[in-house]
Amino acid sequence: MDLLRIILSLIIPPVGVFLQVGIGGHFWLNILLTILGYFPGLIHAIWVIGAK
Fold first, then answer.
1. Domain span including residue 26
2. What confidence tier does 48 reach under pLDDT thresholds 50, 70, 90?
3. Based on the structure, what is the number of domains in the chain?
4. Mind spelling out the 3-state secondary structure of the chain?
């Protein structure tokens, strides 16, 4: 299941975070990071998915 989340995070980082933690602090932070730049959002998404 983590592989699917990582693949979805490569396309749209907040989707992978949402599937991992739901709507919470990490989700909103990831949306902000993705708006500021794709790569910060991607790195955060992979970090959140890998840490759980």
1. 2-51
2. very high
3. 1
4. CHHHHHHHHHHCHHHHHHHHHCCCHHHHHHHHHHHHCHHHHHHHHHHHHHHC
